[in-house]
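JOB MANIFEST
job_type = single_chain_structure
chain_count = 1
residues = 471
[input]
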Amino acid sequence: MLSAFLMLLSSLSVFAQEKSITGKVIDEEGIPIPSVTVSIKGTSTGTVTDFDGMYSILAKAQDTILFSFIGFESQEVLVGDRNIINITLAENTAELEEVVVVGYGTQKRSDVTGSVASVPEERLENLPVTDVTQAIQGTTAGLNITQGSSVPGSSGSIQVRGVNSINGSISPFIVLDGIPFTGTINDINVRDIKSIQVLKDASEVAIYGTRGSNGVILIQTKRGVDGAPQINYRTYTAFEEFANILTPQGPESYAQKYEDYFSQAFPDREQDRILENQSEIDNYNLGRTTKWFEEATQTGIIQEHNLSIRGGNDKVKYFVSGLYLDQEGVIKGYNYKKFTMRSNLDVQITDWLKMGLNAFFANNNFDGGRANLLNATVMSPYSVPLQDNGEYLIFPMAPELLYANPLLGLTTDRYERERTLSGNAFFEIKPQFLEGLSYRMNTSYTLNPYEYRNYEGRAANNNRGIRKHRR
């Protein structure tokens, strides 16, 4: 029995041990394929094949190795007891025939020599996200999205293949429906997007000059289709909580902390008060405590409603959509509301002349006073937020004046709006006497008004009162 148990342990140890797996990846004609991605499924471990199609990777017997390359069918292989795994990849003809948008038109993916990455349309359709950066995060190699803030309505910064400048802009050039985009990424309704192409190679972005030095992101919105009107309504509700919460000190440990401090700072004196500040002592004697973190935070709620209508015939096609987003953050007062409308119209005037009109409006609303989470984390549990008359206490730990009530910001009348109004028209001419020749003229206009107003009075610990206003 003991020997059987030891044999079982030995077999389990061998099964979990990593070993070096080598091999060669070729196509159906026996030609080595370089730059094939070789990765352990379900992990971040991976490598690529060299010029001769050779690779080497550490894996366990129970691991599955995934081989993938653009234009070929991916393959999954269980390692098992093998040390050498050779793979033959078959061409994916459907992917090679796929049409991608590049700076100077469209091409088949098989004809593109530069680096063009596509974001799957299914991802844009189904993910419950509030802006484009969240939808494309982690979708393509070399595209880095950094979420610098979790404030509702904030967008992540986008980098294509790393930082390309020390003190200049590192954001890629965004082109929306063939027109340079000058608004914020928040203005674009994710549900309106048909495709996103990321141009990373110098040959692909050359047409945009220096504006494309940090890469180019091409976004195409949905258009009308032949047939009866298609009405699509989508809605979702989501709840947000803090991912990690530091447990604050309770009342007993807070009082013990002051006792320990006093005994070390004044070893020759007898402690004459339970806490430092008089307001804390009063609340201690009355048994009143406050969980400040819970006072300043809440369960975040996201609600989105999206309605779109599309249809048309062989002469006129249309797409109209509207979006309303309401997001309440996990910190009280951090709210965000967004309303967008879009209209895309295509008219086939003659066999050789086509015109179109794209227009959209976006209103980003950041109104509302905000609680101070930092002050909430340093407040004494033996302090209270409200006076007997129901108004906020300015200094809950009086006579301590260093930290004001973290909820004072909720009394301010804060107004912040960011709007975008954009419209562009195009004419496309395709002479019938010369096949393949087309000429397209675009014209556009964009308006980006911004307004911020805020007043802080005595209730917000500003005895003089201050009004801020900027556009």
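[summary]
The chain has three domains: 15-94, 98-221, 227-471.
The domain at 98-221 is CATH 2.170.130.10 (Ferric Hydroxamate Uptake Protein; Chain A, domain 1).
exit_status = 0
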